[in-house]
Amino acid sequence: MTKSLLTIFIFLSQLLFAQKNDDKIIFGFQFKPIIAASYFKAGDISAQKGDYQFELSPRFGQSLGMVLRYQLSPTFSAETGVNLVNRRYQLQIENNTISLSDFTKFNLRSYEIPLQLLSYVRLNQKYYLNASFGNAINIFPSDIISFAQNNDFFFQSTSRRLKIQSAFIAHLGLEYRTEENGIFYLGASFHRPWKNTARSFPEYNDGTYSFNTQAPSGNDSFYLDISGNYFTIDIRYFFSSK
């Protein structure tokens, strides 16, 4: 992991300082709505423990950040940048024996530093089809705790697997290039961590009934894995280098 971070920071330094006036470098912004899709193993997760049923549902999220692109050749470029990723979840609890039905909402935030290789296929004078793949370093600032909407008897704590993690990333998109107005990009991307990102530990205690109160430190603690997979729609704009 340390070697991956060192590689990224060296790459960023070269882009920002080594060739400041090189028109091979372009800078842009991107906004990526995150779509929950069960096809990519990023949909709802259901689990049961005793009389307690749980459903963990990814909700709408987004990624926002900057992109640096360095042209290696007429058909290949390297890309990096920094993104703030905000993933939203809802955890539902049900127990018909004690007439329990409640939910809690929480956000899982991270900083993403991608490093990827991109290739182009020119369709006509201004339109280019491109595809890219690479690795992303994801930094999770902290663990999370959230309480139920209706009472404080039910809450969940989310523990990240590691503070710094990595993931495979892949993109496919279409660019419209202009000399004076920059580059407009529309595409899609897939983010898949090499291992599960975090674990959600649900707990309940109303003084009479209790569940999973030793979490997350107990050896027999119940949890739901959060894979960290997600699919996005990518909207980008690159400033003109002219």
Description of the molecule:
The two termini are 37 Å apart. Helix content is 7%, strand content 63%. Residues 1-5 have low confidence and may be disordered. The strands form two sheets. Strands 1-3-4-5-6-9-10-14 form an eight-stranded antiparallel barrel. The chain has one domain (25-76, 89-107, 125-238). The protein is built from one helix and 14 strands. It has 242 residues and is mainly beta. The protein is elongated, with a radius of gyration of 21 Å.
Write a concise synopsis of the structure shown:
With 242 residues, the protein is mostly beta strands.
Any key phrases for this structure?
242 residues; mainly beta; five-stranded antiparallel beta sheet; disordered N terminus; 14 strands
Instruction: Tell me the span between the first and last alpha carbons.
Output: 37 Å
Domain module count: 1
Main beta sheet, described?
8 strands, antiparallel, barrel
> What is the average per-residue confidence, as pLDDT, rounded to a whole number?
87
Low-pLDDT segments, ≥5 res: 1-5
Helix content: under 10%
Read across the widest sheet, the strand sequence of neighbours is: 1-3-4-5-6-9-10-14
Cα Rg: 21 Å
Overall 3D shape? elongated
Count of β-strands: 14
- How many DSSP helices? 1
Bin the strand percentage. Answer: over 45%
The string of secondary-structure elements, in order, is: HEEEEEEEEEEEEEE
Class of secondary structure makeup: mainly beta
